[in-house]
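ok new one. same drill as before - C-alpha cells go in, u give me an amino acid for every spot. 290 of them this time. try not to just spam alanines like last time pls lmao
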C-alpha cells in the first residue's frame, strides 16, 4: 500500500497538481458535453422555427390562392383567372427557393415536395373550374370543383399536422436546452465548490507534510544554536522524504559532533592531568634542590 509520508516532496507536489488538473479536466469534459448538447438542441430548435415560418407562410399563400380562385369564379372573367395564375407563378417559385433551404433535412424536404405536388394539382383543378365557369360548361364543373375543395382541405390538414409536429419538436428542444443549461450551472457551481474544498485539503496536506516538519527542524536547530547547546536532542524521523533525510543527516551530524566534543573533552582532561603531574614533579624537583 502506498505510504504518502515516504514519497519525495517533488512527488507529493506533483500528485497534488495532478489531482487538481484531473478535477478540472473531468469538469471540463462534462461542461463541453453539455455545451455540445445545448448547441445541437439550439440548432435543431432554429431549424424547427424556420420550418414553422415556412409552413405558416405556405398556408397563408395557399389560402390566398384559394381566395383568388374563388374570386375568379365569382367574377367569371379571364382577367381574374390571370391574377390567380400570376400569383401561382410567384408562389411556385417561392416554394422552389424555400425548399432549397431544407435540402439538408430530407424528411421535411420530402413533405415540402408533397405539398408542392398537391398545390399544383389543386391549382390545376381550380383553374379548370374557373375556365369551365367562364365558358359556362356546367356539366364539366363538378369534377374539378370537388377536386379543388378536396385538395385544398387536404393541404390544410397536412400543413396543420406538420405545424403541430414542428411545434412539439421545438418545445422538446427548448426543454432540452433548459435542462442542459441548468445542468451546466449546477456543474459549474459543483466544480467551483469541489475546487475550493480541494484547495483547502491540499493546502492542509502540504502544510502537514512539508511546512510543519521544516518548522520543527528549524526550531531544534535554533535551540541548539542559541540555547544551552543540548546535543542530546534529536529530530524526529517520521518519513522517508527529503525532510526525513534531512532529519537523519542532522541527527548523524549531531552524533558525530558529540563524539568529537567527547574526544576533545577526554583529550583536554588527559592534558590537564599531564600538566598537573608535570607541575607536581617540577615542584618536587625544586623543593629537592633547595
Amino acid at each position: 500500500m502506498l505510504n504518502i509520508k515516504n514519497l519525495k516532496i517533488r512527488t507529493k507536489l506533483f500528485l497534488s497538481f495532478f489531482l487538481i488538473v484531473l478535477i478540472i479536466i473531468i469538469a471540463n469534459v462534462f461542461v463541453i458535453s453539455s455545451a455540445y448538447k445545448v448547441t445541437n438542441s439550439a440548432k435543431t430548435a432554429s431549424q424547427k422555427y424556420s420550418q414553422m415560418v415556412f409552413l405558416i407562410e405556405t398556408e397563408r399563400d395557399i389560402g390566398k390562392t384559394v381566395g383568388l380562385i374563388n374570386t375568379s369564379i365569382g367574377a367569371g372573367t379571364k382577367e381574374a383567372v390571370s391574377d390567380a395564375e400570376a400569383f401561382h407563378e410567384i408562389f411556385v417559385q417561392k416554394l422552389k427557393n424555400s425548399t432549397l433551404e431544407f435540402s439538408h433535412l430530407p424528411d421535411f424536404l420530402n413533405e415540402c415536395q408533397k405539398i408542392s405536388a398537391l398545390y399544383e394539382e389543386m391549382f390545376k383543378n381550380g383553374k379548370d373550374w374557373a375556365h369551365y365557369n367562364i365558358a359556362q360548361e356546367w356539366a364539366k364543373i363538378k369534377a374539378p370543383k370537388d377536386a379543388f375543395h378536396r385538395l385544398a382541405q387536404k393541404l390544410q390538414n397536412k400543413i396543420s399536422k406538420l405545424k403541430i409536429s414542428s411545434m412539439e419538436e421545438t418545445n422538446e428542444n427548448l426543454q432540452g436546452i433548459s435542462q442542459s443549461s441548468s445542468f451546466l450551472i449546477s456543474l459549474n457551481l459543483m466544480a467551483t465548490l469541489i475546487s475550493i474544498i480541494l484547495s483547502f485539503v491540499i493546502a492542509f496536506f502540504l502544510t502537514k507534510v512539508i511546512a510543519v516538519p521544516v518548522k520543527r527542524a528549524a526550531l531544534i536547530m535554533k535551540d541548539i544554536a542559541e540555547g544551552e547547546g543540548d546535543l542530546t536532542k534529536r529530530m524526529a524521523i517520521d518519513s522517508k522524504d527529503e525532510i526525513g533525510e534531512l532529519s537523519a543527516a542532522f541527527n548523524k551530524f549531531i552524533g558525530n559532533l558529540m563524539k568529537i566534543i567527547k574526544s576533545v573533552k577526554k583529550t583536554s582532561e588527559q592534558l590537564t592531568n599531564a600538566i598537573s603531574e608535570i607541575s607536581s614533579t617540577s615542584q618536587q624537583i625544586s623543593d629537592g634542590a633547595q
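The chain is about 85% helix and 0% strand. and btw The domain at 11-201 is CATH 1.20.120 (Four Helix Bundle (Hemerythrin (Met), subunit A)).
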